[in-house]
Amino acid sequence: VAGLGNYGLRGTRHSVGMEVLDRLARQLAVAEGWRADRRCCADVALATARGLELLLLKPRRLMNLNGLSVASAAEIYNLCPEDIYLVHDDLDKALGKVAIKLGGSARGHNGVRSCISALHSNEMTRVRVGIGRP
Questions:
Q1: CATH of the domain at 17
Q2: How many structural domains compose the chain?
Q3: Which of 129, 79, 131, 121 is nearest to 100 (CA)?
Q4: Three-state DSSP class for residue 114
Q5: How far is CA 69 from CA 42, 96, 112, in A?
Q6: Mean pLDDT of 1-10
Q7: What is the tens place of the pLDDT at every residue in 88-130?
Q8: Residue 6 neighbours by CB distance under 10 Å
Q9: Environment class of residue 2 by beta-carbon count within 10 Å: exposed (0-12), middle (13-18) or buried (19+)?
């Protein structure tokens, strides 16, 4: 589960994917387990939910380069694109609304575009979190 965003700009609307991962880590009682993984240039935490092992990932890069971290982690942890969930902001959804989308285009989102390019696939599941338009 990758939370897309701008690592140095925490707390902004476009980094909501990372905020969602922070909350998920707290709910799964692994919030103290975040560690920097230099191999994929990301903060990672391991969790278990309903018998599934999860790798939570927050890229330590700007949004346009998030895909490099996601693709590196996929290689390191032996994941295929279908195993990956991308959590990201969506301007076209009302604030707080959530939608899940399987595959497809980036729909203008630079972080998703970066992931599609780096993974050479668009088969990742997207968890789109509405941030509304300013």
A1: 3.40.50.1470
A2: 1
A3: 129
A4: helix
A5: 6, 26, 12
A6: 91
A7: 999 999 999 999 999 999 888 999 999 999 999 999 999 999 9
A8: 19
A9: buried
The alpha helices in the chain, defined as continuous H runs, are 16-27, 66-76, 110-119
Q: Strand (E) positions, 9-122?
A: 35-37, 42-49, 52-59, 85-90, 98-102
Confirm whether 14 is a catalytic residue: yes
Backbone angles phi, psi at 105, to 5 degrees: -80, 170
- Sequence-distant (6+) residues with CB within 8 A of 1 are 21, 24, 54, 55, 56, 57, 84, 85, 87
Domain span including residue 100: 2-130
Pairing of the two strands 2-3 and 85-90: parallel
